[in-house]
Amino acid sequence: QYKFRDLTIEELKNVSKAYPNFTFSMNTYTFKDGSQKDLLNFSGTIPVKYGNSYNIPVCLWILDSHPFAPPICFLKPTANMGISVGKHVDARGRIYLPYLQNWSHPKSTLIGLIKEMIAKFEEELPLYSLSSSDAARQSELLSYIAKITEGETDMKTRSKIGGKNEGCFNKITVVGAGDLGIACVLAVAAKDVADKVVVLDLSEGTAKGGTMDLEIFAVPNVEISKDFSASADSKVVVLTVNSLGNAQTYLEVIQSNVDLFRGIIPAVSHYSQNAVLLVASHPVEVMTFVSWKLSSFPKSRVIGVGANLDSERFQYILTNLLKAEVLAKDAWIIGEQGEEKVPSWTSCNVVANQTEAMAAHNSREKVANRAMEVLKGKGQRSWSVGLSVADLTDSILRDKRKVHSVSTLAKGCCNINSEVFLSLPCILGTSGVIEMVRLEEDPLVQEKLQSSAGSIHDLQQQLKL
């Protein structure tokens, strides 16, 4: 059934000669759409030096159009190995490499692929050793993944993987254990928002830094894990991770983040299929769009932290520093994070005539400009963003129906026709965005939003999802 049988056999001979430990067999592979096909695959270990020498178990499935199509590659961890999700490996062990993305016969070969695999794994080890208790859980997870590849998906099985059914608990998962992730955990704990907080620490090796301190000082109701199954049945999943790769250009930095999310979003979406995804990673507008696409969640359940912090600060400045409390209740910062954010309003007081309306508008603009100048001096530290995340999470879990300026799908608003996420005032509840609050019509604001949407859309078009 292989269209280019001789070329394929020649390649496999080269692999067998270079890596004699590999074994070959024909097995049934199940694709994402549920279709199945008998494919040749070979399994074995590749030598990787990461301080010490490691033999990393892998499995490569050879498509019937080989060598004109790249193989599908997976790690094959044993029960005492955990998968370190990163920019080259997702939660199921699927391997993603530039070599695969740029596959082109005859330049691309299986030997060349394995060499790049070794090189990338020597930069970022894809597996780590599990403790005996974690190994038991990993064994269950591997068994479940095997059932997925056989086309068996079962909600009851999914619940068992987490160790216990969390029921109606208000459970939150924070993905990432950097400064921002830890700040989110502490802020959520301080506001007593959740019954349980799971921190997914995706860094290499054992717990270190912030997560080690969380363990030392035993923050209540906080669990630290490297296993995605620990996030099962979360009501909110907060994304705080950012790739720390060797990217040189802004586009490469974002693409590195996209590669990282490609290994995270499908996993957390699988374990918490009814969760609200709350994105705090940068750039928040693009990464919220990426999360939406990779999760296949409805747009209402994928939001970014957006301008929530700036809006709260803006309203505080108007009320407490400029004594303009009447204006503050309808004032919002919208658009994209950074220098392109703009002030806007969700209502306007009715005035007797056009002259009074113009005077009121000019007065409001002066106050808004003064507030924006004060706002410019306020940076966004990890702890302040953490407080903003806790504020949003509180509104979602407690179904407060409170208005926040968050990154949401802006298509259809302000004559924006592209799929981009911008901060807009939205009512939040347990299902995420319940309703977008209508903004006062202002041609200058609409022009700025359209400009932001255009530049973000152009950037997204250059990314490889």
TrEMBL record:
Name of the protein described by the UniProt record: UEVLD enzyme
Gene Ontology terms: biological process: lactate metabolic process; protein transport
Pfam families the UniProt entry points to: Ldh_1_C (PF02866), Ldh_1_N (PF00056), UEV (PF05743)
UEV domain location: 1-131
Coiled-coil spans in chain: none
SUPFAM superfamilies (UniProt xref): LDH C-terminal domain-like, NAD(P)-binding Rossmann-fold domains, UBC-like
GO molecular function: L-lactate dehydrogenase (NAD+) activity
Substrates-to-products reaction catalysed: (S)-lactate + NAD(+) = pyruvate + NADH + H(+)
Gene3D superfamilies in the record: Lactate dehydrogenase/glycoside hydrolase, family 4, C-terminal, NAD(P)-binding Rossmann-like Domain, Ubiquitin Conjugating Enzyme
Signal peptide: none
Domain of life: Eukaryota
Entry function: Interconverts simultaneously and stereospecifically pyruvate and lactate with concomitant interconversion of NADH and NAD(+).
